[in-house]
Design goal:
The protein is α+β, with helices and mostly antiparallel strands and about 130 residues long. It contains 3 helices and 5 strands; from the N terminus they run E-H-H-E-E-H-E-E.
Length: about 130
């Protein structure tokens, strides 16, 4: 199988995360059948949602989403303008301030990498099973 990729760039908006999830589902559907199972597709969409939310919340309010299908994996790459690296936090069970997403991404992905951008910012990549 050859690789297939798609890219989306957006600024902070009320619908940005929902649009990213929709773009991920459309990308996965375009792969054809039986390219990815429902459970794996849901995992990809969840990781997209978490990484885009983090980019908007902590990364400067803009993001670039790149999805690439490789044999056996789906690569989710989210870039943002902040050089600040993601960090593990203790999840907040009382006030609802977060801390769950980065743990979840690392648990669901085969591999997670953060690459600083050449002119600032960073890209977070997660490889997920197909």
């Amino acid at each position: 199988m050859t690789t297939m990729s798609a890219e989306r760039t957006a600024l902070r908006s009320l619908s940005a995360v929902a649009e990213a999830r929709q773009a991920a589902r459309a990308f996965l559907e375009a792969l054809g059948q039986p390219a990815i199972g429902r459970e794996q597709a849901d995992t990809v969409v969840l990781v997209v949602s978490e990484l885009v939310t983090n980019a908007l919340r902590h990364g400067g309010g803009a993001y670039t989403l790149r999805l690439t299908a490789h044999p056996g994996t789906i690569e989710v790459a989210v870039g943002d303008p902040s050089p600040r690296l993601p960090r593990m936090r203790t999840p907040d069970l009382v006030d609802g301030t977060g801390g769950f997403g980065w743990h979840m991404v690392n648990d669901l992905a085969h591999h997670v990498a953060v690459t600083p951008g050449p002119e600032g910012g960073k890209t977070v990549r997660a490889l997920l099973p197909r």
